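A reminder from the course coordinator: this example appears on the midterm review sheet, so study it carefully.

Given structure:
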């Protein structure tokens, strides 16, 4: 949001007031503009704490929700870590991660979204993100192990294939659907340690397989 520093400052202040304290995450969100990842007709809503529609029936979550996901990853600015993103969408979350990761590998089941994300990231000159259409339940085995894996679609159980792609000391962050149907943000390490944290809003379910039509 560097095109309007006052708008960016208001955006970050709002996130701080909602409980986001990770300076690295806030810095990334201050410099990456949501407008670059949504339809022009929605630009006036980019700085609002609102869910925005994407092609293929997908959505761009509220900024607070994205910030919660990224905070849970505990990313280290300037590091060389290898990250995997499940659910690339239009590229916004990948762009944020690119500011903190050494390399981001991102997958989505929709080719339309993969193409859009690639175009959006290339337009911004982001070079440390690679994308492909793939089943999020399978991940991207060729570039494992990953120091962090972020799943942006809700699951009832974190897929075993993703755990197998974690590096020693790595962690998976995912919204998990409980027996009561509610979602919480679950953080699980390679050795099985678990923790939970609240999630600002429920996310769309992660769907297995590839989308054939889109």
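Designed residues:
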């Amino acid at each position: 949001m560097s095109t309007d520093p006052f708008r960016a400052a208001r955006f970050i202040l709002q996130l701080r007031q909602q409980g986001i304290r990770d300076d690295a995450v806030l810095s990334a969100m201050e410099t990456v503009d949501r407008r670059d990842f949504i339809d022009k007709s929605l630009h006036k809503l980019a700085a609002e704490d609102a869910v925005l529609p994407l092609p293929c029936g997908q959505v761009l979550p509220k900024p607070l929700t994205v910030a919660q996901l990224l905070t849970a990853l505990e990313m280290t600015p300037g590091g060389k870590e290898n990250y995997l993103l499940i659910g690339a969408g239009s590229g916004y979350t990948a762009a944020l991660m690119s500011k903190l990761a050494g390399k981001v590998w991102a997958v989505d089941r929709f080719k339309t979204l993969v193409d859009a994300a690639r175009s959006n990231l290339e337009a911004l000159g982001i070079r440390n993100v690679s994308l492909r259409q793939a089943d999020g339940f399978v991940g991207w085995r060729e570039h494992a192990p990953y120091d962090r894996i972020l799943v942006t679609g809700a699951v009832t159980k974190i897929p075993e294939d993703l755990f197998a792609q974690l590096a020693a000391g790595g962690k998976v962050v995912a919204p998990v659907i409980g027996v009561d149907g509610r979602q919480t943000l679950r953080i699980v390490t390679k050795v099985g340690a678990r923790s939970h944290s609240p999630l600002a809003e429920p996310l769309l379910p992660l769907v297995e397989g590839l989308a054939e039509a889109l």
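The radius of gyration is 16 Å. The beta strands are 52-53, 59-60, 82-86, 103-108, 129-133, 146-151, 166-177, 183-189, 194-197.
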